[in-house]
Design a protein that fits this description.
Blueprint: H1 33-44, H2 49-52, H3 78-82, H4 85-120, H5 124-152, H6 160-171, H7 175-200, H8 204-231, H9 237-255, H10 261-266, H11 271-280, H12 282-290, H13 295-301, H14 307-316, H15 326-357
Length: 358
């Protein structure tokens, strides 16, 4: 993968210092029905990216089929309007590389965080489910890495905002902060970004990858929501305030994460001009708001939509999502993936029958 990095990576290994308690639990019968059900789904829904995805599909990284141009942050700007079609194809290539690279780095963060959850969480049912998620995240890392290496042939280093957030989540010794930072904040935002590709891309491989990843991620976010909804009512006001402060800080970090300034700097665009445009364009404001559509209702469900969080969500213009049904959104993600898988199997059956008849 290093060969395909478009920007230099000073150190391919990033070590985060931290300490936390590893917890054993000898009460094997004390299990919550909803988490056991989720664990059952986690076992039965495992998939192999080598078999479930058609890697023979040819991908043109500069094609508008990868996603509508209006989702490119500088679309409609003076810089964009001056570009030739060849230069616009180059921008599409770099933006697609940058976006999928952040997906890849976030998935490795999720892999490491979930392994930490297995060790640190006190409940045996949570350990069971988290173990299935470790396998899910390893598969996601494998899949996005292969897509970048074989189809996009370009990768970008981790975005500074994502790196700061992962650093905070992994250094904190409290097990629930790992859930809150990764399962709720990072993966909640990722779900909305994956959905943009699933719903608007006409590139079949990217569409399939993000559909199947979303099926897994819907379970992961539900896992965090169920575990924290049971735990947070036990906190003191001071402990709850610490979690709310973290949500506020993480939300502002993530709101700035999708400006893609590394791309504009690398392409030698006028950075001040394009960042001013991306911060204020109607499309990008709507896009960044949409990224919180999964986070806000879950924060409400786990009991952390207090005054300071509400104020932050109002400032970001995302408080309107507080009445969304998080469970219904997750069910829809699973159903869309199941429908895609059914169509895939039908096509495979038709091909097999045709081969047998000939």
């Amino acid at each position: 993968m290093t060969t395909y990095y478009e920007l230099p990576v000073n150190d391919p290994l990033w070590a985060i210092p931290g300490t936390f308690d590893t917890r054993f639990n000898w009460e094997y019968d004390d299990q919550r029905a909803q988490l056991v059900t989720l664990y059952g789904k986690g076992k039965s829904k495992q998939w192999d990216s080598e078999k479930r995805l058609d890697w023979s599909i040819q991908v043109d990284p500069g094609s508008p089929e990868n996603g509508p141009d209006y989702y490119i942050p500088i679309f409609g700007s003076p810089t964009w309007e001056k570009l030739s079609e060849k230069n616009r194809a180059e921008v599409r290539h770099h933006v697609g590389s940058w976006l999928n690279s952040q997906f890849l780095h976030g998935e490795q963060g999720a892999l490491i965080c979930t392994a930490k959850i297995v060790q640190a969480v006190p409940d045996i049912d949570s350990k069971f489910y988290a173990a299935t998620q470790v396998m899910d995240e390893a598969r996601h890392v494998e899949t996005y890495a292969r897509y970048l290496r074989e189809k996009i042939e370009m990768a970008y280093p981790i975005n500074k905002y994502l790196k700061v957030l992962l650093d905070q989540v992994l250094q904190d010794s409290r097990w629930d902060f790992t859930y809150l930072g990764m399962q709720i904040m990072i993966e909640g935002l990722a779900l909305a970004a994956f959905g943009m590709i699933r719903d608007y891309s006409t590139e079949p491989l990217a569409k399939a990858i993000n559909t199947y990843v979303m099926q897994d991620e819907a379970r992961h976010v539900a896992f965090g929501r169920l575990a924290l909804r049971d735990y947070y009512p036990q906190l003191t006001d001071a402990e709850r305030a610490e979690r709310e402060d973290f949500i506020v800080e993480a939300s502002f970090l993530m709101y700035g994460r999708f400006l893609a300034e590394e791309v504009w700097r690398h392409l030698d665009f006028d950075l001040d001009e394009v960042l001013e445009y991306t911060r204020n364009s109607e499309m990008m404001l709507a896009f960044r708001k949409m990224l919180f559509s999964r986070i806000v209702p879950i924060v409400r469900d786990i009991g952390l939509l207090g005054p300071r969080v509400t104020k932050a969500f109002e400032e970001l213009g995302v408080i309107e999502f507080k009445d969304f049904d998080a469970e219904e959104l997750s069910r829809a993600d699973e159903e869309i993936a199941e429908e895609m898988d059914l169509r895939r199997r039908e096509i495979e059956d038709m091909v097999r029958l045709g081969s047998e008849e000939s």
